[in-house]
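[agent] plan:
  1. take the single chain provided in the ticket
  2. run structure prediction with default settings
  3. attach structure tokens to the ticket
  4. add a short note for the reviewer (M.T.)
[agent] executing step 1
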Amino acid sequence: VQLQAFGGGLVQAGGSLRLSCSGSGRGFSSYAMGWFRQAPGKERDLIARISRGGAGTYYADSVKGRFTISRDNAKNTMYLQMDSLRFEDTAVYYCAADQNTRWSTHGYYTGAKRVSNYDYWGQGTLVTVSS
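[agent] step 2 finished; step 3 output follows
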């Protein structure tokens, strides 16, 4: 499956953005999906994950209560609604798919944060939050 992330941009602190991740090819609805972000000089971190059917979700503490992950398998698209944005949310945001069927119904498992456990990646979209 090929993934494309878009929707990033420049926003003032306190504002909102919605990122989308569009998938092409077979298998999108079979995979758990995640949103990662990487700030300059920092590692790529998982911030949200959603199970293949959408029932299971996970959020990092840094975004819990402000970001919402969702997916529409009929459209092969995953979303990240980002509200109450902060300067520290500035980063390149990546979407990724985990084709491991053992964990596809789980919003989270012990290996969910590991970048190497994700098999397909979007190209990244830059989110810049001005203070």
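[agent] step 4 note for reviewer: The radius of gyration is 14 Å.
[agent] ticket updated
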